[in-house]
Target: (2Fe-2S)-binding protein
Amino acid sequence: MTEEQHEIRLHVNGVRYSARVPARRLLSDCLRHDLRLTGTHVGCEHGVCGACTVLVDGQPARSCLMLAVGAARYDITTVEGLAAPDGTPHPVQRAFSECHALQCGFCTPGFLTLVAAYVRDNPDPGEDDAREAVTGNLCRCTGYQNIVAAVLRTAEIVRENGADVPEARRPDERADAADDAQPAASPKEGGRP
Model:
């Protein structure tokens, strides 16, 4: 018996996508397999590890715990959507690079989206605050020291530059840059979002 498919429209990184998915398709699987946005990683598939963290209306959420059909009414930001439209790295991307806050890189996309939202809401964290902020995401390589340093460095970059840490790019800010990145398997519905 063939599973019933649902036509959904998702707003991801400022681009509107269409996909046909079964009702039980997880947002993480839809992002990776249907939209080919493979920056979101899938680890435990139980909402424990944080590798699949994306921003849903600017708030961190485990995409392995959310159904794709339920995500249609939200603005989703994946790790691919953190950089500026011109490709300038987001402060959190810069900080993770400067602080060597990754090793194998598997958990990194989840940390980047989590920390981007955290620093936006907490622009001057202390070390204990930064450590507490990342406790929900698992890393098996780094021992967290450099990740905590990267949280603090992200906040420092934002304060130094007066930069606004985006919660999610608005459609008109991302559309031009994302048009070229549109996967062939899930064409954008007519025109700009």
Remarks:
- The radius of gyration is 16 Å.
